[in-house]
Specification:
Chain A contains 9 helices and 9 strands. Chain A is α/β, with parallel strands linked by helices and about 270 residues long. The N and C termini of chain B lie close together (about 10 Å).
């Protein structure tokens, strides 16, 4: 089982030296990420979700524990990343933005053809020569997704990719992301604080507890695929959402309680 | 002629309120340019008329304020001399300016790459910039001689500081997610510099160039004031000691016009290079 996983996190922890005191962002995080899995990391802000993604991407070194990555993932261009903000190069056209990784990675394949196909796939056909500022937020995020897919990475990390979008756009983006995911056979780890989004997209949901960031619960999503909009009104969708909402509220309250307790202790 | 437009240097700020407005039609741009030059001409004519009226009406001594037609006559009579010496000054200023651009951006790149470098360089930069550069002119002339080199040095000294500071700031002010993305692809720092940092810094580099260009000309002229054998500053000093006020006026106006022309050239270049910016169009 462990041998088959794409990324394996074992007892991962991360602390930052914040001046005099140390801030623990993440503690004892263990997870086996299986190929083609869609994992959502769910939690309130401040529970180390973004830190977790940056650790997996090797943008940050772990403080404790280990992360074992499949060689395909640790290769250059083995991870695609999408941030909350599109992070496009504003002086470049859509096409040249999507092609940007090719210059860095020296992709041997015909990057231009691939980029054009990806732009089409994310629904931006006809906007190849547009500049980012001419596009809406949702469209910019589509460009960012196409760019992340250019190197054909087995693993896609998404850090609240639709957090800045309105609810309707978000729903459409979710549907389109699932299409892309099923067509490209990617493994996705998506961070979100939106419960419905996590339920709608995922195979598994990792509920995080804050301060320090840690796993509260890992929930297997029983919903079948393909996912459709009407499923959002179904009883099992509601049941899972309710369960998650309760868990998130509970762990956040616990975190606050623990903090208040610690504060009253130091005061007394 | 020199509408100085202030606009946000950060593209995401510029995005606010300008919802990707497409560029105005070519015809209206031409019409606007025509209106603009008409405005400038009316403005200039008014100034000259006022000047003429003051001289005539109050009978001002031509040593204090020569009449516009006298200045025009001086400019006409000494045209070759003015051009030759202006070109000498311009060359000094532009060489100093060019060296300052290369030095300024180069230093800024190293400052972004190394914090030690920043800590080492910043105090020296601030110290040099706090020194009144005019006082340094005699020293530069002792070191670099009476010729063009000391003037290039002055031009450089006056205009390097704003370029370094603005370029360094521009290179640092980069969207952090973009840097993460390039680090994720294990891009080397030169690639990040070329593909991300330098293009992001271009707007702030350009605003510093607009400050630096007139400073370079000032630097060259100051150098010529102190000690020189040629250049428009030298000619101004000569004319002034010979009580040829109308020549001084002609020379000053000539150098101002050159400065304005160069400034417009920079503006044009900026619009060309930064045409991707949402509100860099029109006006």
């Amino acid at each position: 089982m462990i041998g088959d996983s794409l990324v394996s996190l074992r007892g991962v922890g991360k602390s930052f030296a914040g001046g005099a005191r140390q801030v623990t962002a993440l503690i004892d995080f263990s997870l086996e990420v299986m190929p083609r899995e869609f994992i959502c990391i769910l939690g309130a802000s401040g529970c180390g979700k973004s830190t977790l993604l940056r650790l997996i991407a090797d943008l940050l070194p772990v403080s404790t524990g280990t992360i074992v990555r499949d060689p395909l993932v640790s290769a250059r261009g083995g991870i695609g990343m999408v941030f909350q903000r599109p992070a496009l190069l504003p002086w470049r056209t859509v096409l040249r933005n999507v092609m940007a990784p090719a210059e860095v990675l020296d992709l041997k394949i015909e990057a231009r053809q691939l980029a054009l196909a990806l732009i089409d796939q994310v629904g931006l056909g006809g906007f190849e020569e547009a500049l980012p500022h001419q596009l809406s937020g949702g469209m910019q995020q589509r460009v960012s997704i196409a760019r992340a897919l250019l190197s054909n990475p087995p693993l896609l990390l998404m850090d609240e990719p639709f957090g800045a979008l309105d609810a309707l756009t978000r729903e459409q983006m979710n549907l389109d992301l699932l299409d892309v995911w099923s067509e490209t056979h990617k493994t996705v780890i998506l961070v979100t604080h939106n419960i419905e989004e996590a339920v709608f997209l995922s195979d598994r949901i990792v509920v995080m507890a804050p301060r320090p960031g840690r796993i509260a619960e890992i929930v297997d999503n029983p919903l079948g695929r393909p996912r459709t909009v009407p499923m959002m009104g179904a009883p099992d969708f509601g049941a899972l959402s309710n369960h998650l909402r309760q868990r998130v509220r509970q762990v956040s309250a616990n975190g606050l309680e623990a903090r208040n307790l610690a504060r009253s202790r130091t005061m007394g | 002629m020199t509408d100085v437009q202030l606009k946000p240097t950060r593209p995401e700020l510029a995005m606010v309120g300008s919802d990707g407005v497409s560029d105005a039609s070519k015809g209206s741009i031409l019409w606007q340019a025509l209106l603009k030059s008409l405005r400038v001409m009316v403005y200039l004519a008014t100034v000259v008329a006022l000047w003429f009226a003051i001289v005539e009406f109050f009978g001002v001594n031509s040593l204090v304020l020569p009449a516009p037609q006298a200045v025009a006559q001086a400019a006409y009579d000494n045209f070759p001399l003015l051009v030759v010496h202006s070109l000498i000054t311009l060359e000094e200023a532009l060489v100093g300016f060019a060296v300052a651009i290369v030095f300024g951006i180069g230093l800024a790149i190293f400052m972004v790459w190394s914090e030690t470098m920043t800590r080492l360089v910043m105090p020296a930069l601030v110290a040099i910039n706090s020194t009144p550069k005019v006082v340094v002119a005699p020293i530069l002339i002792i070191w670099l001689g009476y010729g063009t080199l000391s003037k290039i040095g002055m031009a450089f000294l006056l205009c390097a500081f704003p370029i370094v500071i603005n370029a360094a700031q521009g290179l640092v002010d980069v969207e952090p997610d973009l840097l993460d993305l390039y680090h994720l692809m294990k891009a080397d720092r030169w690639t990040v510099m070329r593909k991300v940092r330098l293009p992001s810094a271009l707007p702030s580099i350009f605003s510093s160039l607009k400050i630096a260009l007139p400073l370079a000309i000032i630097g060259a002229v100051i150098g010529e004031f102190v000690a020189a054998r040629a250049g428009i500053g030298y000619q101004i000093v000569m004319a002034y000691s010979g009580f040829k006020t109308e020549f001084v006026f002609a020379a000053v106006m000539g150098i101002s016009l050159t400065c304005i022309a160069l400034f417009e050239l920079l503006n044009w270049l900026e619009h060309r290079l930064l045409s991707w910016r949402p509100i860099s169009e029109g006006k």
